[in-house]
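Researcher: I'd like a structural prediction for the single chain below. Treat it as a standalone chain; there are no partners to consider.
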Amino acid sequence: MKTDGNANERRKKRILVVDDEADIRELLDLTLARMGLEADSVGTVSAAKSLLREHQYRLCLTDMRLPDGEGLELVRYINETCSDLPVAVITAHGSMENAVSALKAGAFDYLSKPVALEHLRTLVKSALDLPTNGDSNETKLGLALLGKSPPIVEVRAMIERVARSQAPVHIGGESGSGKELAARLICEMSSRRKGPFVPVNCGAIPENLMESEFFGYRKGAFTGADSDRDGFFQTANGGTLFLDEVADLPLSMQVKLLRVIQEKRVRKVGSPNEEPIDVRIISATHQKLKGLVDVGNFRQDLFYRLNVIEVGMPALRDCREDIGLLADSMLDRLAQASGIPVPRLAPSALHALKEYSFPGNVRELENILERAIALLQGDTINVADLHLQPTLTESVDVTGSPASLQGYLDEMEKKAILEALQKTRFNRTSAARLLGVTFRSLRYRMERLGLND
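Model: Treating it as a single chain, here is the predicted structure.
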């Protein structure tokens, strides 16, 4: 009985190595053995497929070029026949296009030749630490991303799929659509769930501080550097770095970010040495990155490195059937936080919410309900309690009178201010800088537009 248990334990820790170079197979086998793992080593795609049909593995390591096919063929085969098995590819040095192609095809991660043993050990540990209970992930996703509409069902499935990879992910979607929530869910359902999650708002960091903020600095590197300090990359080591509003990075910083992603090493400001980092990057922006690439405001090579896997968060107006469910959940949570009974949403109020355009998406829905609860007299939220803002088309009269023009201009100004506040996490000083106005001017404009409520 004891022997059977040991055999099962060995199977749980068995790795498949596919490479036609005997010295590479020997190196990988020796390194894995020192980690307490056993390896089956073969040199062809056909031999690998044969072993995959006969045995269960925890990880597959495959070279990209094999005598009877490509490593990509094996990646696709594994994804189709045993999707729970992570597969990592080994690429020639400098072949980033092959690595990106493999990640897009569903590879867990990649290694470059010559294989760095520290990277190999990190990759293997990450693969072995992947969660195996799909039901709990599905439950977690369902609780965090409520809804039964097709766009929400699709994005939940996508998040669950990309969580099992180490590939860079770019999350697109309008402001307030839940991009950071999606990033946190990807992290929580991945092998990095025990590591740090470091969110960074790229639009809120002054350009002259970016390098030291991202990469850290050594004592004495510049005036005011009184001690060594880690940057975002060092803080996120072993976990996930979330670059929100990545489109706001200046071109000079984009070059440095690209190099760090490719080399997996960073150098602190004022340090002569680089240090290895193990970070998964998830980026997000409400802007269209491809459009920024086309006009030269975003580097194409960085775009392809960040946009390996794309997750699109749907706008709330595309998920109107979920508004009732979302509103009920938010009301429960907000009422509990305020220590009051949960108010009822009148049918007419729910209808008004379903008809509303929600330019601020889920975040705006929560703000509307939070304000309604704070000002509510009674136990029922009616249409008047929602204080829904008219859309631009509603605020401009077709006659084009001066009054309607002012209303249109006010709405445009309000939209610009709200976007700046969201980018800077409602830091008014940073928002004023982003808008090119003084803090006093911003405060006056917010008061005039009723944005201080």
